[in-house]
Amino acid sequence: MRAYTPKDNVQAKAYYTDRFYVSPQVPRHDVSSDEVFAADLETISSKFTVNESYIEVGQMVVYINASDIYGVLELVRDELSYTQLTEMSAIDWLAKDNTFEIFYQMLSMTKRKRIRIKYSIQNGQAVDSVNKLFRSADWSEREMFDMFGIEANNHPFMKRILMPYDWQGHPLLKTYPLQGDEFAAWYEVDKIYGKEARDIIGPEIRDTANIDRYDSERFARLGFEQPKGTKITGDEEPTVQTYQEDGGVFLITKFDKDASKIVDDPQR
Amino acid sequence: MAQHKVNYTQDGGLPVALTSIDKIVNWGRSNSLWALTYGLACCGIEMMASGASRFDFDRFGTIFRASPRQADVMIVAGTLTKKHAEFIKRLYDQMTEPRWVISMGSCANTGGMFNTYATVQGCDRIIPVDLYLPGCAPRPETLQYGVMLLQKKIRANHASKAQKAKRLM
Amino acid sequence: MAQIKNRLTPFFENITFDREDNELVLNFGPQHPSAHGQLRLMLHLQQEQIVKAHPDVGYLHRGMEKMAENMIYNEFMPTTDRMDYIASSSNNYGFALAVERLIGLEVPRRAKVIRMMLLEINRLMSHLFWLATTALDIGAMTVFLYAFREREYLMDIIEGYCGARLTHAAIRIGGVPLDIQDDFLHQLRSFLNKLPQNIKDYEDLLDSNRIWLMRMEEVGTVSTEMALSWGCTGPMLRASGVAWDLRKEEPYELYDEVEFNVPWSDKGDNFARYRIYMEEMRESAKILYQTIEMYERCVKDGQTDLMAHAPKYISAPKLDIMTQNYSLMQHFVLVTQGMRPPVGEVYVATESPKGELGFFINSQGGPYPYRLKLRAPSFWHTGILTDLLPGHYIPDVVSIIGTTNIVFGEVDR
Ligand code: SF4
User: Which residues have CB under 8 Å from C43's CB, separation 6+?
Assistant: First the structure.
């Protein structure tokens, strides 16, 4: 019987996990253990709902509601001096509960603190663009759309950014295989030569251990290469590879190793 | 009156050398291989390094040209992605015959370490390639050795006959 | 000449005339000698002046984030080399640090010193490369040749350490794999002794050069607000009036023990950025001198550990693996199955030569990261071109792209 592979997550899986293995958890601290973060959280929670918050590896993580994101980012930028949106993207939890988790990584240069603002959206739901607050979100939201298919409302130019405009599929979804689907496999051939050329050019060779049986005869005989189809007897002459013909080349001096000077101190 | 005697038959005396057209054309072609600057990724940096002061590509007659119309050899230095694939074909078509292609680095040869959805698994799926240089990234010496091998290959051809265009399909 | 048939629609290279407002659309790239890689710019022009710029990236998108989800942590290390391939070790380091923070590892001091040396050598390499290419784009061929000459010295040193010129993979999670080779310090010192003179040579060639000044001064001015809003970091931000250097503000490794300055400027133009790169080279040299001393002190104190000791995550030293059964077993499991960091999330930023290089890792306790996001500074330094280029002229485009110091392995990942 063929082993069952789940279709909702086709990424690499650990092939063996101990039955009793319990992974440890990165320690999470209460927000009140850091006064700067505690004050920040106070300000945020006085205006918006905060679902969860903790400190993980020195950064505060705040879970909010999806509809509040524009307001929260405006608040932390204007009042809490988190002036830079360093990074934003999504995490695919479709296999677990059909949601995406969106995170915004913020930096305050005056307080030297970083916080991460997070929320979940349902599959197919759009997020609010924060491009008006942080111009950097312009490109990150496009990247998020490209990679996950999450659209941003009020975005001026919601198009793919990394993949070509006529690409199909969203590569970072867990359902998308690493080596691409059927469309990806033939993308360049279809585009340049047309579908009829598929037979001539042939499929991609994705097997890293692939060895062409007919090629390997010569490949394995380094220094004794023979033309394709030659019957190998075992007493072939060595084929010496030279970059110049024996008789020398018209008007070109041949490199003479003995006459050359080797500089061994690079810092001379 | 001073006698100025030139021994025309002695070595170096005769300002004329006899050779076949084939050889002289091939000599010219092989020693002025102008390369298209086609640095796509990391290998492009090594290609630049081979053009710079220490490795000095100019002594091979290889000068980097920015326009495919002036170039004889295309050095595909780096990862060819599916988004870019169309352009390599366009540039190759713009180069004049005779033209050669060196595929530099394992990405250009086979896709290399990037066995993913976004990379073309070897630029020979799109254009015909004359020479494959292994390595990630190949050293500048490798590129220069490759160019010397390409020169040898050019010299082995008949220049006088119209060269048949290389075809992928 | 017969051409191979293809399906591509012919386009009449690059130029579209718009009949109504006489606006010219110029396509720049993706294969352009001064685009520093595969940048494509669609420029809308009024005469020579740009009214709208539309950068198009992704021509080097190789799917690194996807690869990370399918690779064990140690396997991903060489892939990080190919991000910012001008300074590979700084990417290795960023990733290693992120995983170490996730696990909660402390690296031995000697490894830290070696890492700092590698990082600063990489910074010098990157800045020299930046100087070379930017000068070449602007037409100063001599500087290109000079700067590459110096860069080759550094490459030799690095090659002696890790065996590769470009793609180093010189740092491991938990430390460094090797001690530095015998003549490393000697070579580094003799390089550093020459460096001030070299930098002065470049400056003599450029600083009062009329062409250089005209292409650099008052061109490509980035205001502080714009830099902050676009998420600029590194020299881009420091040239725009914010003295923000992660080595100083959030010190990692031993950067809090060394003394160096953070050069900054409030001009925000190309020339300010150029000055910052030059000054940073001097500061890097200063740090390198101090790390040499620190290394010698480590040797004197007899600190020999190069890898952290954490049997759950890191293989034991080679000697133990070869002699002790348990170390061998543990090494086997770590290599075949990969380490399993705890469940959690971490975002760690380091100061790469280009700016803030961040790694966001979401681990679900498996040997593969559940999500890994690479925060590459160049991505936003390319994005800012959208707002920066309008109002400038075509020749300025080249010098602006030059001074933003973008590397496409990093932009597209
Ligand atoms: S072969 Fe290696 S060095 Fe060259 S482009 Fe590919 S990854 Fe970069």
Answer: C25, C26, C27, C28, C50, C52, C53, C54, C389, C394, C397
